[in-house]
């Protein structure tokens, strides 16, 4: 069996699993997870798929052509609403970063490893 057949087989298996179990994860992602598990369990040897994977990776830009063409097709809409899109992308990213940082800081303070730091005392072991 060729490397392409193995890679496509795992992709198809992921699609079948996704549709059979009605999972909210895309089938190709499930296929990649199954393929990675098969590699780790040594059910599939890396040598079997290495050349095919290198070829696909080398020509990866071809897979993005439909997205580039789609972006060009919506260029008038993007020009019209570009500023609003950019502000919402940057703003929502900043909000997520601030919320995640503050939650991590609060959780970090509550689960401090050394209680001396909470009282303002430095440990002599540092």
Notable characteristics:
126 residues; mainly alpha; 6 helices
If you had to describe this structure to a student in words, what would you say it looks like?
The protein has six helices and no strands. The chain has helices at residues 3-21, 27-40, 46-58, 65-73, 75-110, 115-118. The chain starts with a helix and ends in an 8-residue tail after the last helix. The model has no long low-confidence stretch (mean pLDDT 86).
N- and C-termini, Cα separation: 58 Å
| Major sheet summary line | none
Shape summary: extended
In helices, the fraction of residues equals over 70%
Structural class estimated from helices and strands = mainly alpha
Mean pLDDT: 86
Question: Low-confidence spans: pLDDT under 50, at least 5 residues?
Answer: none
* Count of individual helical segments: 6
Q: What is the chain-wise order of helices and strands?
A: HHHHHH
Number of separate domains: 2
Please report the total strand number as a whole number: 0
* Proportion in β-strands: under 5%
Annotate the secondary structure layout.
Blueprint (H helix, E strand, L loop, with lengths): L2 H19 L5 H14 L5 H13 L6 H9 L1 H36 L4 H4 L8
Helix pairs in contact: 1-2, 1-3
Q: In short, what is this structure?
A:
The chain is mainly α.
